[in-house]
Amino acid sequence: MRVYYHTFGCKANQYDTERMRQELEARGSYKTENVSEAEVIVVNTCTVTNQADAEARRFIRRMHRRHPDARIVVAGCSAALRGEDYTAMDGVADVVEGHDAVHVARVVEHRNGSGLTQIELRGSLDRTDYEPVGGELLRARLGASRGWLKIQDGCDRKCSFCATRLARGASRSRALHEVIEEAKLLGKRHAELVLTGIHIGHYGIDLNPQLSLGQLCASLLEAVPDVRFRVGSIEATEVDALLIELMESSGGTLAPHLHMPLQSGADPVLRLMRRWHTREQYRVRALEIAERISPLGLGADVITGFPGETDDDHAVTRALIEEIPFTYLHVFPFSPRKNTVAETLPRRVPQRVAGERARELRTLAQERGTLYRGSRSGTTATVVVEGGGRMGITEDYLRVRVDGELRDADVFCGAGHTMNGLRPDLLTGTLRGDPDDLYIVPLESPSLSYV
Ligand code: SF4
Q1: Is residue 129 domain-shared with residue 240, that is, in the same domain?
Q2: pLDDT tens profile 223-273
Q3: I need a labelling partner for 393 at 20 to 30 A (CA). Which of 40, 46, 273, 381 fits?
Q4: Which domain holds residue 306?
Q5: Residue to probe by mutation, ligand 1, list 46, 153, 160, 162, most atoms within 8 Å of CB
Q6: How buried is residue 184: exposed, middle or buried, by Cβ count under 10 Å (0-12/13-18/19+)?
Q7: CA 264–ligand 1 middle distance (angstroms)
């Protein structure tokens, strides 16, 4: 059976799609990049914003209009919260409420067309013993240089704006040995692995014996030394001393890059958001990290126009962003999610104001990013090669051009990485150019030559 996959949302969702693909391939199906020849279209949805839900619905309508003979199977976060809505859509054959790869594979395989599959996860969102990934370990993220390694799922926090928690359930960590085995498999194909999940700062607290994310990273660096690891989004208050030490001392093998959601820099708003940290706690931790690690890619998510956010609150947030050396920001105007506490909060901020505040912070972030890129010119970096050898990602999360034209056989001949003829690798060199055109001039190495 030919299956076309489309994924909305975060790296955890992308990981889940790869697991679905692998489960289906084990049953004799194969992935097609050409949707016109697909017999089944699997849509893995996201619910992080209202827009994400709307985009999924638009995509499904378009797919059905253009490919009326294909069976559409909908899964993922939005499907977990709005299964009935998707079931009612023309062209949707099945809906799996959640991300379970084995269930998706069964639904696709059995062509049951029974509509809604309420997988066990729906009834057990508060359980902590649910196996986040059933079946086999993931072996590759097809067509990509960097791989995603999911280490946990779900979240135990209760941020008032968040629907992801409702869709993903309680925090569940994967066993250390399983994560290491999967890292070894993925490491054969990918030069970099990004540790992903929904709340990775809570990795290991539900395991027996308990573990921390820092301990997991130390074990991975030891067990899979030829791969660069990168930590996905993590809360500032959960970056522990061991993690900082590893980023400082691993020579880039644990990438010096942290994405630490801020959401707001004003305490009254943080309280309404039901965040557990204060502005000062975030500030102190971020400045401590920036002081110790250099270079450092430092990013954050920020929500503007949260209910109750005043002009003063916004100004305080802006001041905090100016103080911390962020290299990029993801800024979103607030949009209420169904069934969340934030949906019920009074003192709504007009969309226009939330949008203006978002634009202001995005401009600020862009200026800061430009300054940072400029400051990296003339320094050394190691990139994971992407885009057929033309682009690369540095350890501190800058996308740069690779100077010269590298022959595929030369670029991708490293360390036994092979993937359908495409072999991702790491290149070390000097960054040159200006912020608009930053490029790496690789050091010569026996495995590398230029044409
Ligand atoms: S920490 Fe908050 S925002 Fe993040 S997944 Fe958990 S509840 Fe959602």
Answers
A1: yes
A2: 999 999 999 999 999 999 999 999 999 999 999 999 999 999 999 999 999
A3: 46
A4: 256-270+290-376
A5: 162
A6: middle
A7: 14
